[in-house]
Write a structure and sequence with these properties.
This protein is of the alpha+beta class. It has one domain. Helix content is about 35%, strand content about 20%. It has helices at about 5-10, 15-25, 50-60, 90-100, 115-120, 140-145, 160-165, 185-190, 225-235, 255-265; strands at about 35-40, 65-70, 125, 135-140, 170-175, 195-205, 210-220, 240-245, 245-250. A seven-stranded mixed beta sheet has the order 3-4-2-1-5-9-8, sandwiched between helices. Strands 6-7 form a two-stranded antiparallel ribbon. Helix 3 (about 50-60) links the parallel strand 1 and strand 2 (about 65-70).
């Protein structure tokens, strides 16, 4: 989307004050634990770009709330499985051996969008120590959400997703669909369904040294996530509204996860 396209999407600039009002009208409240999946371009022309969105979310939640975003870095997945695009076979081992270690304070996100990449650098934001599936958090529950993120099953019960669930959190789909909703991966992990297990190794820093850590995970699948979301909204319900020019959905995360567990067990 060009800047001219963004201007054409809105009658007036999207600002911190309009974002605050829109978030509050949607049902985001002070003190909430809020997991945000986002598209900056969906909002229209924003005065101040991604920082304006982060500032507005923090203002609404206040320091009593907790703001969470996925800060995944898929460049640390196994290059043998890369498809968009694949790399030459003889590159795979070179990449595994030569890429720098994952460092939460340095490693950029990949494919997450401008808002999470901005958010991870904000003062007071903590980031979990998982090289492919990290989450960043700010506010009262930031340490609880981001600490003890298990290397294995990185979107499962020892992940920030489960801590958001424990806190009775909400999910905000800010201009994106259920295919971006990572909480459905937690439901996959909890459901009694067959998931293919895979073994990885990734580089981390421990005691100042680069080390390779082995872990186990599963092959997840987002192909039916939109169907899960539609079924959830039809049976349980979610709040719909606009933030700027973006179509948004606000969801009770524990209710969604519990519903999706049963849906996966019945439909996969």
């Amino acid at each position: 989307m060009t800047e001219a396209d963004a201007i054409d999407k809105v009658d007036d600039p999207v600002t911190i004050s309009t974002l605050v009002s829109d978030f509050q009208d949607l049902g985001v409240n002070a003190g909430d634990t809020l997991l945000v999946h986002s598209s900056l371009s969906s909002l229209g022309w924003v005065a101040g770009d991604a920082p304006a969105v982060v500032d507005a979310l923090q203002e609404v939640l206040t320091e009593d709330g907790t703001l969470v975003m996925p800060t995944h870095s898929f460049q640390y997945s196994d290059p043998e499985w890369w498809e968009s695009p694949p790399v030459p076979d003889h590159w795979v081992e070179i990449i595994r051996e030569e890429r720098p270690p994952f460092r939460p304070e340095v490693t950029p996100t990949r494919g997450m969008g401008a808002i999470p990449e901005c958010f991870r650098n904000y003062p007071g934001v903590l980031r979990s120590n998982h090289p492919t599936s990290s989450f960043a958090a700010w506010g009262a529950g930031a340490e609880e959400v981001t600490s003890n993120h298990s290397p294995s099953y990185g979107l499962g019960d020892e992940s920030p997703l489960a801590r958001v669930y424990d806190r009775g959190g909400k999910v905000l789909l800010l201009g994106v669909g259920y295919d971006r909703n990572t909480s459905l991966h937690l439901a996959e992990m909890r459901a009694d369904i067959d998931l293919e297990e895979v073994n990885y190794a990734f580089p981390l820093v421990r005691d100042g040294e680069r080390v390779s850590v082995e872990y186990t995970d599963v092959m997840t699948n987002t192909e039916d996530f939109e169907a899960v979301g539609a079924a959830f909204e039809a049976e349980i319900g979610a709040t719909k509204g606009e933030v700027g020019a973006a179509e948004c959905t606000l969801i009770d995360q524990p209710a969604l996860v519990d519903f999706a567990v049963s849906w996966f067990e019945s439909n996969r």
